[in-house]
From TrEMBL:
InterPro entries: FAH, Fumarylacetoacetase-like_C, Fumarylacetoacetase_C_sf. This is Fumarylacetoacetate hydrolase family protein. Coiled coil: none annotated. Residues 169-346 form the Fumarylacetoacetase-like C-terminal domain. It holds the Pfam family FAA_hydrolase. One of its GO terms (molecular function) is hydrolase activity. The keyword Transferase does not apply. Belongs to the FAH family. Transmembrane segments: none annotated. Keywords: Hydrolase, Metal-binding.
């Protein structure tokens, strides 16, 4: 790739055979780019935003290389702009059990270790083998209610309706190599490495990317009504490095079979490795997208986090305390066809404040003659 080390960082090995959308920061402002056939194109004069490029791709069945080739160094941004950012939770059995543990522990990590074995023994096998929304799921629900083992998290794990929530505001996501934030008053939190579906204004999937749906286990464990505070904080959502568009070589089947690896490396020498696979998800990604779109429209498109299998329990400081982030942690999420997303953990209070909003974007695009 020509003189663009920032863009080369994070691309998958087969990037020369794929089509990727992204955004870079230039001296003029945020600019959508297209990578195809090993070349990088500035697409701002074709469409001023990534959302517009995706809509054009949907309407016309492909994107014309009408942009100019990028030759200068650039800073990589989150690959989305005007799209709504939605997320699904409790879509894997392991995450369902961990949410029940948080709930029973009331967000206190000191109680989690004691509860983990009991809940796994009581619920693990049944939750893993039950198809959400099936008659068998309803029968299991009645049994668990009778045994005082039911939870609101099990409702979305095996019930007919998936959990779908808004992760963060439009333009609030961060991208490759950016700092990612956790609340300064959280004492139990973790990254959530996920495959993220990307859809156009018609709600149909056009591609995928990687994401980190940072989660505060202590806040949500105290009350599910604190989900917004647990999930939506400054720099608490990273995406990237690029959106890989579906084509003959990359399809929804690749999303369904994707393996995701994650490494956390702390400045204290701590290292944690985890792996997950989309093959273990309890609801199909297209079903999740359909539920997000049910009786709702997204004229600028949306991205949808599909949930995570990863719930770190490896002790960090002392036996039984489990995992929580420390400032300076490097989180690396990778998948063979989507590339590698890397971020550094800071508190949301110390990360650079989010100041570039929608009005700023449109003023910038107007000034550049792109509207």
């Amino acid at each position: 790739m020509k003189n663009i080390p920032a863009l080369n960082r994070g691309l998958p090995e087969d990037w020369r055979s794929g089509t990727f959308l992204g955004r870079i920061e230039t001296s003029e402002g945020p600019t959508p780019i297209l990578i195809r056939d090993g070349r990088v194109f500035d697409m701002a004069k074709v469409a001023p935003t990534v959302a517009d490029l995706i809509a054009q791709n949907v309407r016309e069945g492909g994107l014309e290389l009408g942009g100019i080739e990028v030759l200068d160094e650039a800073t990589l941004l989150s690959p989305i702009d005007l799209q709504c950012v939605k997320a699904c939770g409790v879509t894997f059995a392991v995450s369902a059990l961990e949410r029940v543990i948080e709930e029973r522990a009331r967000g206190d990590y000191r109680k989690a270790q004691e509860l983990r074995g009991k809940i796994e023994d009581a619920l693990g096998g049944s939750v893993r083998t039950t198809v959400p929304g099936s008659p068998e799921a309803d029968a299991l629900k009645q049994t668990l209610i009778g045994e005082d083992l039911w939870s609101q998290y099990l409702e979305v794990a095996i019930g007919p309706d998936a959990e779908v929530f808004t992760k963060c505001p439009v333009l609030a996501t961060v991208g490759q190599d950016a700092d990612i934030g956790v609340r300064s008053d959280s004492s139990w939190n973790n990254p959530e490495p996920e495959v993220v579906m990307v859809a156009g204004p018609d709600g149909k999937a056009v591609g995928a990317t990687l994401g980190n749906d940072v989660n505060l286990r202590d806040f949500e464990g105290r009350s599910a009504l604190l989900l917004g505070k647990a999930k939506d904080n400054n720099a608490s959502c990273s995406l990237g490095p690029f959106i890989r568009l579906f084509d003959d070589g990359y399809t929804i089947e690749d999303v369904r079979s994707a393996d995701v690896a994650m490494t956390i490396e702390g400045t204290d020498g701590y290292r944690l490795e985890g792996h997950s696979t989309m093959r273990e998800i309890s609801r199909d990604p297209e079903d999740l997208l359909g539920q997000a779109m049910s009786e709702h429209q997204y004229p600028d498109g949306l991205v949808l986090f599909c949930g995570t299998l990863f719930a770190p329990t490896q002790d960090r400081d002392e036996p039984g305390k489990g995992f929580t982030h420390k400032v300076g942690d490097t989180v690396t999420i990778s998948s063979a066809r989507l590339g590698t997303l890397t971020n550094t953990v800071r508190t949301s209070a110390e990360v650079a404040p989010w100041t570039f909003g929608l009005s700023d974007l449109f003023q910038n695009l107007a000034k550049r003659g792109l509207l």
